Automatic annotation (TrEMBL), chain A:
Protein name: Sulfur carrier protein ThiS
Gene from which the chain derives: thiS
One Pfam match: ThiS
The organism of origin for this protein: Ancylomarina salipaludis
Source taxon at top rank: Bacteria
Automatic annotation (TrEMBL), chain B:
SUPFAM superfamilies, A to Z: ThiG-like (SSF110399)
InterPro entries: Aldolase_TIM, Thiazole_synthase_ThiG, ThiG
Gene from which the chain derives: thiG
GO CC entries: cytoplasm
Pathway recorded for this protein: Cofactor biosynthesis; thiamine diphosphate biosynthesis
Family under the similarity heading: Belongs to the ThiG family.
Biological-process GO terms, alphabetical: thiamine diphosphate biosynthetic process
Catalytic activity: [ThiS sulfur-carrier protein]-C-terminal-Gly-aminoethanethioate + 2-iminoacetate + 1-deoxy-D-xylulose 5-phosphate = [ThiS sulfur-carrier protein]-C-terminal Gly-Gly + 2-[(2R,5Z)-2-carboxy-4-methylthiazol-5(2H)-ylidene]ethyl phosphate + 2 H2O + H(+)
Name of the protein: Thiazole synthase
EC number(s) recorded for this UniProt protein: 2.8.1.10
Protein species of origin: Ancylomarina salipaludis
Keyword terms: Cytoplasm, Schiff base, Thiamine biosynthesis, Transferase
Active-site residues, record numbering mapped to chain: 97 (schiff-base intermediate with dxp)
Record-annotated Thiazole synthase ThiG domain positions: 6-249
Length: 66, 256
């Protein structure tokens, strides 16, 4: 299936979890936050939360700023 | 020097630093340490999944610095609340620099949206330090809305123009029951010292340090200026007079 991560199309195995997505993206789960559409998904749910086709995933992290 | 207390948390340093505009994370880390600061701001950004970047958090020792994520980039109270919740999740802190400035030219805070967001975020348990216009009425309204401190601007963000708003900041300081942190526009250690002499509880500096030729030395210069300004405030400055008052005896000793 396809999902969109920060507007980029990513192909994933069906019913992948958020943790599996992060692994595929080679992204450390530390210091990031994830929202699916308008819903922020707490990190303690990432192992079980299953993505659906066409989900829009927002993946953010801290950066330099004043 | 008296310790600064915000929301029950003690700070030995009254200098807060932003992490923007440094030429490298390594240089930023060294400047943060040289400043003696104990609170630093960060922004949020979308992860670029094609180009993973150096993680800024590796360069900010959590034992030394409290993180103060900001909401820069949002235009409304609704967006600010969403960004605040993302920041809390990403950084595991409920401390927040609330900033809503929809106009990219002057980056002035949207007063109405800032107040609205502050009210909502306080109900959600955030410790909010709002960036704001130097408006004494608004400062009281934000205090009543649950802000932990207020952060009026000295002059526009990144302008280095110093305390253009000084008369209004004085009123804010006089009336506040929560700490007043002068944020934005402080371009030189002398500006920071002036803010502290006026009785500001702290200052937040970013551009002036990050774009200096030697950010590490400038960070230390700000550290000393903030300490000097605070000590002068605590020692209480002498009154200004409109005529001279001799410091030396005026008795004539040359009998000519």
């Amino acid at each position: 299936m396809k999902v969109y991560v920060n507007d980029e199309s990513i192909t994933l195995a069906d019913a992948s979890t958020i943790s599996q997505l992060l692994k595929q993206l080679n992204t450390s789960p530390k210091g990031i936050a994830i929202a699916i559409g308008p819903n922020i998904i707490p990190s303690n749910l990432w192992n079980e939360y299953k993505l659906e086709a066409d989900d829009e995933v927002l993946l953010i992290r801290a950066t330099q700023g004043g | 020097m008296q310790k600064l207390i915000i929301a029950g948390q003690e700070f030995n340093s009254r200098l807060f630093l932003g992490t923007g505009k440094f030429s490298s994370n390594q240089l930023m880390e060294e400047a943060l340490i040289a400043s003696g600061s104990e609170m630093v701001t960060t922004a949020l950004r979308r992860v670029d999944i094609q180009n993973p970047e150096d993680d800024i958090l590796k360069h900010i020792d959590p034992n030394r610095f409290r993180l103060l994520p900001n909401t820069s980039g949002v235009r409304t109270a609704k967006e600010a609340v969403f960004a605040a919740e993302l920041a809390r999740e990403a950084l595991q802190t409920n401390w927040l620099k609330l900033e809503i400035h929809p106009d990219p030219k002057y980056l002035l805070a949207d007063t109405i949206e800032t107040l609205k967001a502050c009210e909502e975020l306080a109900k959600k348990g955030f410790i909010i330090l709002p960036y704001m216009q130097a408006d004494p009425i608004l400062a009281k309204q934000l205090e009543e809305a649950g802000a932990a401190a207020v952060m009026p601007l000295g002059s526009p963000i990144g302008s280095n123009k110093g305390l253009i708003t000084r008369e209004f900041i004085k009123i804010i300081i006089e009336q506040a029951n929560i700490p007043v942190v002068v944020d934005a526009g402080i371009g030189a250690p002398s500006h920071a010292a002036e803010a502290m002499e006026m009785g500001a509880d702290a200052v937040l500096i970013n551009t002036a340090i990050a774009v200096a030729n030697d950010p590490i030395k400038m960070a230390e210069a700000f550290k000393l200026a903030v300490q000097a300004g605070r000590m002068a405030f605590e020692a209480k400055l002498g009154a200004q007079l409109n005529q001279a008052e001799a410091s030396s005896p005026l008795t004539s000793f040359l009998d000519l």
